[in-house]
Write a structure and sequence with these properties.
Length: 660
């Protein structure tokens, strides 16, 4: 986009994706033993569909309430929902104390596996004590219920302790993925008015320490409102501490009492804010509240993964900095009293069999990960997992993007021994919980399709006018009724919440995804219909990256598209028009621009390719036609150019690229 122009046409692709997906037509019934003992039965599904509100009221009994709710859904002021509004509870008490009180204090909450092979088992009783200490420390630092706390941390136990300590005292946390830049951290801190940040000196990556604290220091320079920074010592590398602002976790937390009485909060008390990319440059602060969120995530964790907390070992391989980490690494597993694996490192360090070694070591029975990881393992070869004993696995979950049948079959064959159901879970930061997933033990699995709404949830595929499409047709994915873990609003911006999700179709939640129903009425997800890309399961906004590019003084205009990529799903491809000043040093500038995007947003936002062009294709109303740029990025013949102001532009771009 140019500095003054940010309008773009919606990207409606996906037809090709569907035809790829449809190549595999085998279906897989659940293994007989699982079907016989499954948590979810056809009877439960029928009951949930018949009366969703009564069903969710029943599910609310999974929690321990200080005051039992008598109300279920309050939809008197749509689209602002309240769930279980007169109930009171404490999230950390539900995740911890009540399990200890029930005699499960010795059960392992987390098998922590460090990047360098250091490991630590943490029981429910130990985790409860640690969280109480951290809650006391936060109180000493002046944090009160309602105050937002920033968390910028690696995948270590203290991160989970910090989140739960915040929840315990009613201070909503705002976790920023530690791969994000100082600028991205600063804008989030500012947007939700964070005064206290919890971080670490650094983290281990491929055996080496990498610093985190300097990014917090740089962010704080832009955020004078931050008065305290609590720093966990993870790497022990030399770290600068700002006098009067920074304190070490071991100095402040370790000396606290492990006694802490959890206060009960309203069910609608804010639990956390998580920023996610939208179709404009400014990230959206998704607000989740307590009661409904915990009910929805606990139920789906139990249902989608057929969780048996006494015997399963659950591993959600997502980073805690994303919603998957919040819902299915932290809150739901703990509320359900499960045993989980927490892994700090990367899949290929010190060797490409690391994940399978971990599955073998802890006898993981349920593994939840993203298709992009599976495709990477496919590239490395099935000989690698074959070296380990994976017989403990009984269910595999997938999240973040459609799982293409090739990856599905590989996962099923080489990891699941053809005996583990694969549960493809569709959901979003906004939805908080799974909304579409084939229930294990019930569904006949269909590779590539997420199939059905979870029990108690009603989704549909609609056309431009909001009418439900017939089987065999495609359109937009919507949710028809409020669900307990839904976002309540966007932090500080109720209007944007209404505009983004509830204005496209009357009374329906607009997810931003395209979808198609097959002849059996099963749902196939087709990717975003807005300017949001999905790169390795991470949401990226095209406009945000365009803004980063035009903020560099060599760039006059920029357009970004997501091109399909065999490993990452989509890859970022940028087209830039450079200013005169860059003439003659295009190659250097391109490298500089990639680095610039990494510092402005994150290394994961670095374009795979930047193409220098003289023109960008625009409609007469000035919108950039990304569809045409995507054709180029994917090496396809360029489509219909009749709406361009200048129909020769595409030839010029193509010629220029050949020249380059
Ligand atoms: C995409 C991640 C197809 C989708 C939990 C959605 C999926 C966006 C799937 C949300 C899936 C997520 N099949 N697409 N199973 N799961 N998506 O907020 O486009 O990071 O809108 O939440 O990821 O991404 P977010």
């Amino acid at each position: 986009m140019s500095a003054d122009q940010s309008k773009t046409e919606p990207a409606k692709d996906g037809a090709e994706t569907l035809s790829n997906l449809l190549k595999e037509d085998r279906t897989f019934p659940p293994p007989a033993e699982m079907a016989a003992n499954a948590n979810v039965t056809p009877e439960l599904v029928a009951r949930a569909d018949a009366d969703p509100e009564a069903f969710w009221a029943e599910q609310a009994k999974r929690l321990t309430w200080g005051t039992e709710p008598t109300q279920i859904l309050d939809w008197s002021n749509p689209p602002f929902a309240k769930w279980f509004a007169d109930g009171r509870l404490n999230a950390a008490h539900n995740a911890l104390d009540r399990h200890v009180e029930a005699g499960h204090g010795d059960r392992i909450a987390f098998h922590f596996e460090g990047d360098r092979g250091d490991s630590r088992d943490i029981t429910y009783a130990e985790l409860t004590d640690e969280v109480c200490k951290a809650a006391n420390a936060l109180t000493e630092l002046g944090v009160k219920a309602g105050d937002r706390v920033g968390i910028y941390m690696p995948m270590i136990p203290e991160t989970i302790i910090a989140m739960l300590a915040c929840a315990r005292i009613g201070a909503p946390h705002m976790v920023v993925f530690a791969g994000f830049s100082a600028d991205a951290l600063a804008s989030r801190i500012t947007d939700c008015g964070v005064e206290v940040v919890i971080t670490a000196d650094g983290q281990f990556r491929r055996g080496e320490p990498t610093a985190l604290k300097p990014a917090v220091d740089a962010a704080c320079e832009q955020c004078p409102g931050v008065r305290s920074v609590l720093v966990v010592q993870r790497t022990g590398e030399k770290t600068e501490m700002v006098e009067g602002r920074d304190v070490w976790w071991h100095d402040v937390v370790d000396r606290q009492s492990s006694e802490h009485t959890p206060e009960m909060f309203d069910a609608e008390h804010p639990l956390y804010i998580m920023y996610t990319s939208g179709s404009t440059g400014k990230p959206k602060g998704i607000l989740h509240t307590t009661g409904g969120y915990l009910v929805g995530t606990a139920f789906t964790h139990w249902a989608s993964f057929d969780l048996k907390p006494e015997t399963d070992v659950f591993w959600c391989a997502a980073d805690v900095g994303w919603v998957t980490g919040h819902s299915y690494l932290v809150y739901a597993p703990l509320v359900n009293g499960a045993t989980s694996v927490l892994y700090e490192g990367t899949p290929n360090s010190p060797h490409q069999g690391r994940w399978w070694e971990i599955v073998d070591k802890y006898k993981v029975s349920i593994l939840y990960c993203a298709p992009t990881a599976i495709r990477t393992f496919m590239k490395w070869g099935h000989e690698i997992p074959a070296k380990y004993d994976l017989s403990s696995l009984r269910l595999l979950g997938s999240v973040g993007e459609p799982i293409n049948p090739e990856a599905y079959i590989w996962f099923r064959t080489h990891i699941g021994r053809e005996n583990c159901p694969i549960v493809d879970t569709w959901w979003q930061t906004e939805t908080g919980m799974h909304l579409i997933a084939p229930m294990p033990g019930v569904a006949e699995a269909k590779p590539g399709s997420a199939q059905h709404a979870v029990p108690g949830v009603a989704v549909a595929v609609v056309d431009e006018e909001g009418r439900e499409v017939a089987n065999g047709e495609g359109g937009y994915l919507v949710v028809k009724k409020p669900w307990p873990a839904m976002l309540r609003t966007l932090w500080g911006d109720d209007q944007r919440y209404v505009d983004t999700y509830w204005s496209r179709f009357d009374g329906l939640y607009f997810a931003g995804d395209g979808a198609k129903l097959d002849e059996d009425g099963d749902i196939w997800l087709l990717g975003r219909v807005d300017d949001v890309m999905n790169v390795s399961g991470h949401r990226m906004s095209t406009t945000e990256i365009e803004s980063a590019l035009v903020s560099h003084d060599t760039v006059a205009e920029a357009a970004v598209v997501g091109a399909s990529d065999p490993t990452t799903g989509q890859a970022i491809v940028a087209f830039v028009i450079l200013r005169e000043s860059a003439t003659g040093r295009e190659e250097d500038v391109v490298e500089e621009l990639r680095r610039h995007v990494a510092t402005e947003i994150s290394p994961i936002a670095k374009p795979r390719q930047i193409m220098v062009v003289d023109e960008l294709p625009k409609t007469r109303s000035g919108k950039i036609m990304r569809r045409l740029l995507r054709d180029i990025a994917e090496n396809r013949e360029v489509g219909d150019v009749s709406t361009l102001t200048d129909s020769t532009v595409m030839d010029q771009i193509a010629k220029g690229l050949k020249r380059g």
